[in-house]
Amino acid sequence: MPAQKLKKTRANSTLSDVAKAAGVSASTASRALNGLAQKYRISETTERLVKESAERLGFRPSQVARSLRLQRTGLLGIVVPDLANPFFSAIAREVTVAAELGGFSAILADSGGSVKKERELIDQLQARHVESLVVCPVGLEFDHLAGAMQRGLPLVAVDRCQANSSLVQVTSDHLAGAKLAMQLLLENGHRRIGVLQGLPGTLPTELRRQGVRETLAQAGIPFDPQLVAGDQFSEQAGYHSARELLTTSPDLTALFAMSTPNAFGACRAASELGLRIPQDLSLLCFDDVAFVEFMKVPLTTIAQDVPELGRRAAKLVTEQMQTGNPPRKKMHKIPVKLMSRASVGKVPS
Amino acid sequence: MPAQKLKKTRANSTLSDVAKAAGVSASTASRALNGLAQKYRISETTERLVKESAERLGFRPSQVARSLRLQRTGLLGIVVPDLANPFFSAIAREVTVAAELGGFSAILADSGGSVKKERELIDQLQARHVESLVVCPVGLEFDHLAGAMQRGLPLVAVDRCQANSSLVQVTSDHLAGAKLAMQLLLENGHRRIGVLQGLPGTLPTELRRQGVRETLAQAGIPFDPQLVAGDQFSEQAGYHSARELLTTSPDLTALFAMSTPNAFGACRAASELGLRIPQDLSLLCFDDVAFVEFMKVPLTTIAQDVPELGRRAAKLVTEQMQTGNPPRKKMHKIPVKLMSRASVGKVPS
DNA sequence: GTGAAAGCGCTAACAA
DNA sequence: TTGTTAGCGCTTTCAC
């Protein structure tokens, strides 16, 4: 611990200070302050005396000592890849609020998108004896999560899940979302559709791609892997992949972006290439943010219910803590919704 | 603590388990594991033996016990009014990352904009013996912050500060920002300028209003309090105040919004009233978000350096922990920047 | 080179 | 109705 050398926390007054001030033993003081006066038939005088002394000394029971004694920390851990990303901060918020409601405090950690950091953080959190863990994994490795779970730690993974896993997971219905998106494009007559994808190897990306393929297959349209580009959820990546697709395949009439930033990048590329949306190019993206309504061309999106992802995760860890067992149902899919706006139009005939 | 009744944390293997497995005493095991083998001249054999045993048992030293013994928790607290707000989550992120870098873990708490909740949370965090505290106060009361500081807790307040306070504070240069905004509008010939303000009584709002008044005064333009409306930083509030101002004072040619959501609300109101931006109405707002570039009319903004607010706060608490003293300089102003885009135009002549 | 013992602040069995 | 005692898991004197 690099924090080693620093100055120690100023000592507060302790329970025994209070006891001394009130002229009673530590146990009596403890009982009086914890509302056990009834149960132990402590005299009203004593109780009041103790409480007054505590008040006067500004006594705050040390949660550290309490945790050690009770073997319960009242701590819940959250790990996200990037707290500055509204998607993750919304999840973090819901979990934090739920935790506070349940009398827990939330330790929040930012893995910065690195699996290595994620491992370290999860280790640290276990050392701190968090009583449960909500993690939005970077999404490429899961053994450390499984490990923590096997040690008996209630854990739920959110968003970037793992297929066929014993982990408790909650994520949006990416498959259905991608199908919804593609169906809308097909209904509007589009046949050559480009896909701007996110981080490959993560379940959201893979499932969405599967949705694309299945919808095309059902419509009897061959899937052209040439029309898929990109490897990140960022604006930059969206821009470059869009430019690439639009120049190598000028017959494209629509673009399906896997994230809002990807779509913004696509907008930029389109405007540089002199393509108007939706007249020359339809655009549709996964994820919905408040701002898209105010865009030049309001974006049609597949909206995830982000707060619900967080709430469900919180509910699942809470239940595990209460029952002591992981839920029977492992994979929790949260429905998505098509938000139809102006960026998708009929294919130019 | 409502969390009382739940199941206790599964016990991990402890130091004495490791010691037993290695056939040494707890003290030796502790020293070997903490890299004090040199200092205590522990034999290499013993050291390796201990480390192997620890490894084999999956030993993770209990931070709880450690904290109690060392009187140091390695915990830092962060309190924000709304983690779902990108402004605060960006700050939280910077502080969290800085904390992790310094070997600390961050406990994050969401006050939901309630002073009462804020008080409770700060109490809880002190009971948990956080070693320092970064808080984005709701902004209307500060005594509990001053109190925590006087107990010797390194504390810095971010954003919603208090004038003439002994608190260590970091906030944007709201006054300069508002002046920048007003100057731009004046340069473009605007004389009747409406102001959509945020939560009254908070320093950001008050300072920005002051900036408005001073700039007008300097230009010899009378300040008309009728042209100020609003009481929140939300889209709703912006919409209603904008409608109100634009209908009661149809001679307005520009609107200065104190937040991005306020500005979005104003956009909605303007479009409903058939006012085009910037031809009929110029619009300018405080705060810059990535999205404004993609708006129908890209917004001219006063950009706060939000990450820097967080980083500076983190630096200030860290220094306080190291030196044990609050910094001499109390108020830290972070510069703002004018981002000129399309939403401000010449006044129609 | 290593161990025994004390103690961080609290709670809970047991005793009175 | 209250006090004594032990112990949560760890570090650190002090002793050998």
From TrEMBL, chains A, B:
One of its GO terms (molecular function) is DNA-binding transcription factor activity. The keyword Acetylation does not apply. The keyword Repeat does not apply. It comes from the Bacteria. Residues 13-70 form the HTH lacI-type domain. InterPro entries: HTH_LacI, LacI/GalR-like_sensor, Lambda_DNA-bd_dom_sf, Peripla_BP_I. Signal peptide: none annotated. Keywords: DNA-binding, Transcription, Transcription regulation. This is LacI family transcriptional regulator. It comes from Bremerella cremea.
